[in-house]
Amino acid sequence: MSWTDERVETLKKMWGEGQSASQIAKELGGVTRNAVIGKVHRLGLSNRNSGATAAAKPEAKAKPAAAPKPEPKPRPMPKTEAARPVPEPSTEVKPVAHVRKQIIPAGQPLPPQPSANEISPEALAKVNEVEKKSKKISLMELTERTCKWPVGDPATEDFWFCGLPVQAGKPYCEAHVGVAFQPMSARRDRRR
DNA sequence: CCCTGATTCGC
DNA sequence: GCGAATCAGG
Length: 192
Known about the structure:
Elements: H1 5-16, H2 21-28, H3 33-43, H4 121-132, E1 150-152, E2 159-161, H5 174-180
Antiparallel strand pairs: 1-2
The chain binds a DNA duplex through helix 3.
């Protein structure tokens, strides 16, 4: 498969929507997420925002080209044909001032309103569901990547751990994380 | 282990 | 230009 116009457009679109590289790759087909990421970079639309986790750590190895300059930041010049004295209006992109741009794809109706936050009914409902399909694992079966959310009464046979796969570093699965970490406003006025 | 994106480098 | 391999992180 090659990067046809259409495919590139799909890529741009999806990437712009915040889709992950793997999702895009799956959608396109015939390419891996690596290919997608590579293409994204070559297209120059890598950073979606400022909050990228890892975006700059050029050293540590495999790059002996240690420039004494702390800031080798060659901004891509818009190739102007002639030396036309056309002043660029405001193409300056200062590394400062970064307003968070919240992209809300049309298909995602979830505005997280952190107002009077109770535990969202959503989350609770989700937990209910999850408990249905939980793996019901025992204590000994708990691993680093199994949800450690206890279900039932420990004093009875009716007790197990969720056991669903956790996402990242968290002790619980996605659903249980939702209720495990209470907004703290909810538990606040729950005093006795 | 699952996932994410970033980077490198042979092709 | 491409993308697998690798790296770095959650």
